[in-house]
C-alpha cells in the first residue's frame, strides 16, 4: 500500500504540479522539498476539479472511503498480477485545495485545448456530473515510476524509465464477430488503419499526423519469441504515437509526444547518458540516440522474456470470448431481463461481483477471477455449452490459420452461439460481461520499466546479449548488457503496471457505434 509521509502537502496546492491527464483523471506531481525525489503522484477525478468552484466552503474532513475502482483493483486485478501492482492510497481532499490546484493549472496554460472542456462544470465529463457534492473529494496517491523506487546502489544519476501500452496481445476468436477481418489482424493494427483513413479520431493525434501509421503489433510482443519482441518494440520506438514514452532522469522526455527534438536527444545521449553508463574515456558511437534505443530494446526484451507479466496479462485479455460484438448482444439481453432498464443492468454489472474460487471451470475461462454462476446449485449447462462451442470455433481458426474457415462453417458457428444468448439468465450474462470488461481493462493498461545503473556483479556474456537476474519477488531484479565496446552495463530494474482499474459498464451502451467503424474494412481473401 502506498502511504504519504504527511498531510501538509495535501493542503498546499503549490506543492503539486500538473503533468498530464486522461479521459477521467488528471495527474499532479509532488514537487515539495519534503518529497522523496519527487516520487509521488496525485490522481484526481476531473469531474471533481470541474465542480470545485461551486463549493465556497470546505466540508468536515472525513476518512476516505474505498471507492469501487479501488475495490476492483484490490479484489479482482491484484490477485492475478500481484507482483506488478502497487495499491494506491485513497486520500481525502478539500474543495479549497482543488480550487487552488485548478486555478494554478489553468493559469499555467498547460491543459491541452481538447481537454479544457473537462475542467468546466458547464461542459463536464458527464451530463450526470453533480454541481454540488455532499462530501469532500478524494484522490489516489501513486508512485511516480519515472523514478526508481527502491534504494538501489546507483553508480550514476542516470535513471531511464519506459512507459508504454502493450495493448491487446490476441486476435479475436469469438464466432460472434460481425466483420471477420478481426480474425486476421490484431485490433491495434485495425485501429491504425481506421485512424490513417480518417474513420476514427484520437484525442492525442493531430489531423496532419494521420499518415504516421505505427507498425507495432502486440501479437509480436506477446509471442515469447525474442526476435519478434524486438521487432515489435523497434516499430514502437520508430512511431511511438501516444503508446510509448521514454524519460531520462524523470523530467526529460526522450521519446513520445512532446519529447525533446532529435538534435537535443542526440546531445543528451552522447554527452550525458552514455558517459554516465560507460565513462568518458570510451569512444562514442556514431549515432548515440540509436545506440541508447537499441540498448533499451534489448534490455526490455530480456526483462519481459524473463518475467511472467506478459503471459499473465495475456491470460486475462483472452477472457474476451465474446468480442465486443458479442458483448453488445449479451448486454442487450441483460437489459431485456431488467425490463428494458439500462440503469438497472449497469448497476448489476458495476456491483455485486464475487471472486470466491469455483470448483468448476469453463473452456477458455480457466483464468477468470470471478465466481462461476450456478443454475439451481449446479454448473450452468447453457453457459458450459456456449463456452465449448466458442472453444471449438477457436480451435478451427487456429487449425486453418492464416486462412479462414469456409464461409458457411463460420456462419453456422455464429448462428449457433448467438442462438444461445437468449437462453442465458441474468447471472450468466453478468459473468460473461464481467470477463469481457476485465479483458477490456487489461488491454488498456500501461507498463513502466524503470532502469537504474548499478555496478555489474559480473561481466556480461556475449556482446549485445543481456542477461537477467530476477530478485525472486517478481517485477524487479538486475539486467546486465554488454555494450557496443563489450563493456558491461548493469541496471537494477523494476516493472510495474498502472491504470489497471475496471471499465464502467456504461461503455457497453454506446459500444455498437464504436464497433461499426470496423464495417468499413474488408477481410483478406483466403489464399
Structure at a glance:
This protein has 15 helices and 14 strands.
Helix and strand pattern: EEEHHEHEEHHHEEHHHHHEEHHHEEEEH
> Overall mean pLDDT score?
86
Strand content of the residues, in percent?
5-15%
Morphology call:
globular
Our Rg estimate from Cα atoms comes to 24 Å
How many helices? 15
Helical coverage, percent range: 25-40%
Q: Which segments are poorly predicted (pLDDT under 50) over 5 or more consecutive residues?
A: 124-129, 459-463
What topology, given as strand order, has the largest sheet? 8-7-6-11-14-13-12
What's the total number of strands?
A: 14
SS class: alpha+beta
Query: Main beta sheet, described?
Result: 7 strands, antiparallel
Distance separating the two termini: 53 Å
Structure in words:
This protein has a seven-stranded antiparallel β-sheet with strand order 8-7-6-11-14-13-12, with helices on one face. It has a five-stranded antiparallel β-sheet with strand order 1-2-3-5-4. The protein has a two-stranded antiparallel ribbon with strand order 9-10. The protein has 15 helices and 14 strands. Strand 1 (16-21) and strand 2 (25-30) form a beta hairpin. Helix content is 35%, strand content 15%. Helix 9 (309-317) packs antiparallel against helix 14 (426-442). Mean pLDDT is 86; it is low at 124-129 and 459-463. By secondary structure, it is α+β, with helices and mostly antiparallel strands.
Amino acid at each position: 500500500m502506498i502511504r504519504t509521509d504527511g498531510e501538509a502537502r495535501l493542503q498546499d496546492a503549490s506543492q503539486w504540479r500538473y503533468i498530464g491527464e486522461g479521459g477521467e483523471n488528471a495527474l499532479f506531481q509532488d514537487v515539495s522539498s519534503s518529497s522523496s525525489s519527487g516520487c509521488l503522484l496525485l490522481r484526481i477525478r476531473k469531474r471533481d476539479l470541474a465542480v470545485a468552484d461551486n463549493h465556497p466552503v470546505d466540508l468536515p474532513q472525513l476518512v476516505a472511503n474505498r471507492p469501487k475502482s479501488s475495490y476492483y483493483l484490490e479484489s479482482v486485478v491484484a490477485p492475478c498480477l500481484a507482483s506488478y501492482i502497487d495499491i494506491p492510497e485513497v486520500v481525502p481532499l478539500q474543495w479549497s485545495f482543488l480550487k487552488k490546484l485548478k486555478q494554478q493549472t489553468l493559469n499555467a496554460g498547460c491543459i491541452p485545448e481538447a481537454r479544457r472542456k473537462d475542467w468546466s462544470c458547464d461542459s463536464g465529463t458527464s451530463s450526470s456530473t453533480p454541481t454540488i457534492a455532499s462530501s469532500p473529494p478524494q484522490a489516489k496517491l501513486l508512485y511516480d515510476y519515472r523514478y526508481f523506487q527502491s534504494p538501489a546502489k546507483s553508480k550514476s544519476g542516470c535513471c531511464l524509465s519506459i512507459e508504454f501500452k502493450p495493448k491487446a496481445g490476441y486476435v479475436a476468436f469469438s464466432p460472434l464477430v460481425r466483420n471477420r477481418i478481426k480474425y486476421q489482424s490484431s485490433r491495434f493494427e485495425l485501429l491504425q488503419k481506421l485512424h490513417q483513413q480518417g474513420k476514427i479520431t484520437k484525442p492525442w493525434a493531430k489531423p496532419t499526423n494521420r499518415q504516421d501509421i505505427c507498425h507495432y503489433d502486440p501479437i509480436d510482443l506477446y509471442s515469447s519469441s525474442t526476435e519478434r519482441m524486438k521487432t515489435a518494440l523497434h516499430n514502437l520506438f520508430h512511431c511511438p504515437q501516444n503508446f510509448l514514452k521514454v524519460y531520462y532522469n524523470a523530467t526529460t522526455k526522450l521519446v513520445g509526444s512532446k519529447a525533446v527534438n532529435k538534435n537535443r536527444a542526440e546531445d543528451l545521449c552522447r554527452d550525458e547518458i552514455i558517459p554516465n553508463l560507460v565513462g568518458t574515456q570510451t569512444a562514442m558511437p556514431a549515432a548515440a540516440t540509436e545506440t541508447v534505443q537499441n540498448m533499451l530494446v534489448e534490455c526490455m526484451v530480456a526483462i519481459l522474456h524473463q518475467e511472467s507479466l506478459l503471459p499473465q496479462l495475456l491470460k486475462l485479455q483472452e477472457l474476451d470470448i465474446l468480442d465486443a460484438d458479442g458483448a453488445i448482444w449479451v448486454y442487450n439481453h441483460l437489459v431485456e431481463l431488467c425490463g428494458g432498464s439500462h440503469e438497472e443492468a449497469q448497476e448489476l454489472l458495476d456491483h455485486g461481483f464475487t471472486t470466491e474460487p469455483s470448483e468448476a471451470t469453463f473452456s477458455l475461462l480457466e483464468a477468470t477471477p470471478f465466481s462461476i454462476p450456478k443454475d439451481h446449485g449446479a454448473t450452468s449447462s447453457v453457459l458450459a455449452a456456449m463456452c465449448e462451442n466458442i472453444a471449438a470455433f477457436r480451435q478451427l481458426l487456429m487449425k486453418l490459420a492464416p486462412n479462414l474457415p469456409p464461409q458457411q462453417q463460420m456462419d453456422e458457428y455464429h448462428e449457433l452461439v448467438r442462438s444461445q444468448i437468449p437462453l442465458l439468465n441474468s447471472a450468466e450474462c453478468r459473468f460473461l460481461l464481467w470477463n469481457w470488461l476485465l479483458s477490456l481493462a487489461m488491454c488498456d493498461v500501461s507498463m513502466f520499466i524503470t532502469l537504474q545503473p548499478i555496478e555489474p556483479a559480473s561481466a556480461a556474456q556475449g556482446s549485445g546479449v543481456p542477461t537477467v537476474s530476477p530478485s525472486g519477488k517478481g517485477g524487479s531484479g538486475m539486467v546486465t548488457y554488454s555494450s557496443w565496446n563489450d563493456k558491461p552495463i548493469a541496471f537494477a530494474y523494476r516493472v510495474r503496471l498502472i491504470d489497471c482499474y475496471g471499465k464502467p459498464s456504461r461503455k457497453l451502451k454506446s459500444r455498437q457505434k464504436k464497433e461499426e467503424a470496423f464495417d468499413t474494412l474488408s477481410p483478406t481473401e483466403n489464399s
